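quick one, 283 residues, struct below
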Amino acid sequence: MRTIQFEKIVSEVEKLCIKSSHELPQDVLTALQAAAQKESNASAKKILNQLIENAKIAKDQQIPICQDTGLAVVFLQIGSQVSVSPDNTTIVDAVNTGIARGYEKGFLRKSVVAQPLNNRKNTDTNTPAVIHTEIVPGDKIRITLMAKGGGCENKSQFKMFLPTDDKEKIIGWIVNVVAQAGADACPPFVVGAGLGGDFEQCCLLSKKALLRKLNSHNTDSFYADMEKQLLQKINSLGIGPAGLGGDTTALAVMIETAPCHIASLPVAVNIECHAHRHASCEI
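---
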């Protein structure tokens, strides 16, 4: 059994908060650059180049890519041979402490309210985070933090289809979800889709899909082809960067699946804006 100190976890999460808010992942930046080169609409090309320049300034000057520095969504892969010291602490406490410190030290906007309806008072720490845990073999902890903006999250949707519904119907619905998002979710988007599981797992799949590299494809050729079709149809909507028209409404569409009940076919869409902020570390 390997022991990891509480403060070590806190320190790493603090760094992830600041890094994810200041530095756009390279695969996202590369996708923006490729889109700018291919874009046929002059105004859209200009906006894409402005987004690229914005990302460069944010990294060079260590300032937020966007003023909405997001709700912290954390994915933990915890080795079965790991314990946290001291004994009266937990990894969840360490993550939330790290987020509070990171958002304070990084001068990041705190966007979490304690109650959804009653009062809606800001917690002033950007905690609690949304934390998903998975126990895996080994003696390490892998932490992935996504700073999820409110505008794009608001446009995500879930639907229970009939098990007899076909691929074309599901593709049509996903494209319509993106069309409804429009300029409000700050395109160009990264679109994550979850198919299968049950109500909550399907939504989680759609968010986990966003963590894949943008140039990756589903390992099943059926879903890889579906990703390709979806990206083509979404970009043919003409919404474009900032919703002002163009060829680039989405940078990528990524699908993740899970087995489901014979009577069910759940589908979820989770939308990310162009500020697709996430970072990982391993302890």
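The chain has a mean pLDDT of 97.
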